Amino acid sequence: MVYEKCCISGCNTTRETHRLFRFPRNDNLRNLWMSFIVPTNPQLIVLSKEQLLNKRVCEKHFDIFQFDNEGRRLRYSYPSLLTDNEIAHGVPLTATGQPIRRYRGHASTVTCVKFNEESTMAISGSVDNTVAFWDTLSRRQEPVQVLKDAKDTITAVQVTNHEILTCSVDCHVRLYDIRVGKMTSDYIGQIVTFGSITHDGQCFVLSCADSTVKLFDKESGELLNTFSGHESKDLLLENAVNEKDSHIISGSANGEVFYWDLINSNCTRKLVHCKQKPVVTLSQHPTESYLLTACEDEVKLWGTKALEE
Ligand SMILES: [Zn+2]
């Protein structure tokens, strides 16, 4: 029987070897199917509803999250057309234009998102004062855990293999040790707009709303150094630590990028990204002497080796 064949281009699967699924009668669900299928199968868009309902899609085009534990296809499942390689990565490697997960649960604007180290969890901070953990490997819609310790907006989250650092407008940073389920809270005295952790894991580097960057010992909570000269205004400035843990880096409201010696807190170099426009976000290469900075619609990549020599 000719029609009992998968309609996806390049796939000649028949019901002899795989399960074939009909297009759904439900208009919304069928449209969702089409949104995944049409980009690579434009020949289907000209078909009428009745013609489509005679077509079949084989089980190879549904990723594992679309089936229950017994292997039955879930009621509202759809063929995402991910390849085996894409499913192994958990993401579509060719854009279908459709997200594969949606996480709704925060009561207000989400300010920051991060993967955990294994990329099994998505972690989000919000204006609703909470940090939520979402299991990216399951179809679960609710967060698996919500941290509710902060009393004001979460501005930034950092994740290491066993720790999570959260920064808040409530002037605290909180360190969660996932292995032992312990939380340590430190009062910083200023709104903390961003936090990073030195590569050796020993210190926090906190950007504060009083136009300072502060270096704290992670174990003792002791303030080790304060870096200043830049302007934060009311921006949520970020910071970075260079790849050798020798310099602290921050942008500024005036378009400059500051480098400070981590030990003596002297400003050793300023890069000028642009004049009088804020440099809020930046990213240091983890192992090499490269820095990314952004200002308005422009991203710059800097080779910074000479800075350290
Ligand atoms: Zn197929």
TrEMBL record:
Cross-referenced SMART domains: THAP, WD40
Gene Ontology terms describing biological process: mRNA splicing, via spliceosome
Source taxonomy: Eukaryota, Metazoa, Ecdysozoa, Arthropoda, Hexapoda
Top-level taxon: Eukaryota
All residue ranges annotated as the THAP-type domain in the record: 1-82
Listed InterPro entries: THAP_Znf, WD40_rpt, WD_repeat_MORG1
WD repeats: 103-135
Single annotated GO MF: zinc ion binding
Descriptive protein name: WD repeat domain-containing protein 83
PANTHER family hit by this protein: WD REPEAT DOMAIN-CONTAINING PROTEIN 83, WD40 REPEAT PROTEIN
PROSITE patterns named in the record: WD_REPEATS_2, WD_REPEATS_REGION, ZF_THAP
CC per GO annotation: catalytic step 2 spliceosome; cytoplasm
Keywords: Cytoplasm, DNA-binding, Metal-binding, WD repeat, Zinc, Zinc-finger
Pfam families associated with the record: THAP, WD40
Location in the cell: Cytoplasm
